[in-house]
Amino acid sequence: MLVVMKAQATPEQVQAVCEHIELLGFRPHPLPGAQRTAIGITGNQGEVDRGNIEALPGVAEVIRVSKAYKLASRDVKPEDTVIRFAGTDATIGGSDLAVVAGPCSIESREQAFAIAEQVAAAGAQFFRGGAYKPRTSPYAFQGMGLDALKIMSEIREKFGLRIITEALDSDTLELVAEWADVIQIGARNMQNFSLLKKAGRLRKPVLVKRGLSATLEEFLMAAEYVMSEGNYEVILCERGVRTFADHARNTLDLSIVPAIKRVSHLPILIDPSHGTGRRDSVLPMARAGIAAGADGLMVEVHNHPETALSDGPQSIYPNQFAEMMTEIGLIAPIVARHLPRGIHIVAAAG
Ligand code: PEP
Ligand code: MN
After folding, report:
1. Residue whose CA is at the smallest distance from ligand 1 atom 4
2. pLDDT in tens, 24-39
3. pTM to 2 decimal places
């Protein structure tokens, strides 16, 4: 259910409606919008008696939200969600494109700093790097853990980049929340409901990557789990799904961008690195992602991908990243977007 407040409703009236919803044993989710505040009601198994709520001062109407996902739905919040980061010009959602770049894994201080310097110079606002890695093999590099979180925190100080890194499980979630600006929930954890709920109790933005075979509804229900706990700063990330196609590691499903935009107000990023698994495909699919209307990109960049401890074959070189920024900066105005720090024209090699 959704309570739509009148445009002129006062904060006290919003508060009174929330208290009434709590008295009924449900959870209110006040969602301020440009025109009016809406209050989502969750925790009800069936219909809420709308009569009493409709009679409260400041209430315009009470609507039934028919979709399985409620707080993630545009029915509840028509305007796009824009996530801001205090003290920076970085945003996710809105007209500025968000660009997240960095290695798959933090491997050393030198490696991380060298990459961070180059992606920051090319215009990235966010730095990514795995500290805790979800690896298919238990014998593969598992990440540097806390040391990696500390390195990324130094990178934030030095280059002004906001940090995004994955929380692999409940054990690492709080540590990641303490050191990072955005908590990443990986594709393999997209339906780890207890982890999603725990992330929902934190007050840090959460980036949820699409599961390997998740439908649009399952993807949005993962976001809904986080939001149902009161954390409304959720970012979706399409990273490719499993199909019969064997020319790429995954099939990057760009068609999910307009489909998500139609039904949800949440921002969505495209990850063309995991989405293709191939360095030579990253740039074309990054361009296509922006053209499709994504709110930004998450890209793996490595200074020595040939010796990378994870995902070397899909990691682009820093100069390719700079080229990517130039190209998406040129595409952006066509879809009414721009890069917050302008277009960085890179001289062609040779
Ligand atoms: C990653 O971003 O490095 C990662 C492991 O992503 P995913 O969960 O999409 O496989
Ligand atoms: Mn990776």
Report:
1. 186
2. 999 999 999 888 999 9
3. 0.96
